[in-house]
Amino acid sequence: MQTEVIPNKRLQLYCMDAQTHQHTFARDVADGLAAPQKWLPPKYFYDERGSQLYEQICTLPEYYPYRTEMEILSTYAAEIYAEIGHLALVEFGSGSATKTRHLLSAYEWAGRPFRYCPVDIAREVLWDTANRLLQEYSHIEIRAMHADFAGQPEVIQAFQLEKKAVAFLGSSLGNSTPEDSVRFLQRTAAIMGPEDVFLLGIDLKKSPAIMLPAYDDAQGVTAAFNLNVLHRINRELGGQFELQSFEHLALYNNERGCIEMHLRSRHAQRVPIVQIEQVVSFDKDETIHTESSYKYSVDEVRDMGYQANLVLRRTWFDARRSFLLALFRPL
Ligand code: AVJ
Question: How far away, in angstroms, is 171 Cα from ligand 1 center?
Answer without folding.
Answer: 7
